[in-house]
Amino acid sequence: MTTATSELLTVPEVMARLRLGRSTVYDLIRSRRLVSITVGRSRRIPADALRDFITREIEEAA
Predict the structure, then answer these.
(1) Residue 7 near residue 46 (C-beta atoms within 8 A)
(2) Mind giving me the DSSP string for 3-42?
(3) Quick one: which of 34, 30, 32 has its CA closest to 50?
(4) Could you tell me which NCBIfam families the record lists for this protein (predicted)?
(5) Please, are residues 14 and 21 in contact by the beta-carbon 8 Å criterion?
(6) Interhelix angle for 22-30 vs 11-18, to 10°?
(7) How far apart are CA 19 and CA 28, in angstroms?
């Protein structure tokens, strides 16, 4: 899954990559479909978790 060296993305970066709105990204985090961590008061999404999410979505759509 994720490693200590994986890149951490901000919510706006994930929004741009998925072309989704802020509330949709937070809904994915809240529903645990997209893994995230909290660093201080900031939410971060490991790049590996985003890739896993995209892969799962593609597999479910097929």
Answers:
(1) yes
(2) -TTSPEEEHHHHHHHHT--HHHHHHHHHTTSS--EEETTE
(3) 34
(4) excise (TIGR01764)
(5) no
(6) 110
(7) 13
Q: How many CB atoms lie within 10 A of CB 52?
A: 15
How far is residue 17 CA from its own chain's centroid?
10
Amino acid sitting at position 31? S
Residue 3 reports pLDDT greater than 60: no
Provide the residue type at 58 as one letter: I
- Count the Cβ atoms, other than its own, within 10 Å of residue 9: 19
Over residues 25-41, the mean pLDDT reads 97
Spatial strand order of the sheet with 37-39 comes to 8-10, 42-46, 37-39
What tokens does 44 get? Answer: 């971060």
3-class secondary structure, 60: helix
Q: Quick one: average pLDDT of 25-29?
A: 98
